[in-house]
Amino acid sequence: MTEKIDTQAFDVADHLRTPEEMAAYLDACILESDGDPAFITKALADIARAQD
Predict the structure, then answer these.
(1) Range of the structural domain that residue 18 is part of
(2) pTM surpassing 0.85?
(3) 26 touches 46 (CB < 8 A)
(4) Does residue 1 fall inside a structural domain?
(5) pLDDT tens readout for residues 2-35
């Protein structure tokens, strides 16, 4: 018998509360992006949504 696992969508914008957290998130995304501008653009969009 398999157990059903309930999951919830994760939105990083819900967890970016302070300017310091936003800056750390952007720094981490830049390091992980491997120069991919779409990755960095998504991080900036996440930060913008967090400020709403």
Answers:
(1) 14-50
(2) no
(3) no
(4) no
(5) 899 999 999 999 999 999 999 999 999 999 999 9
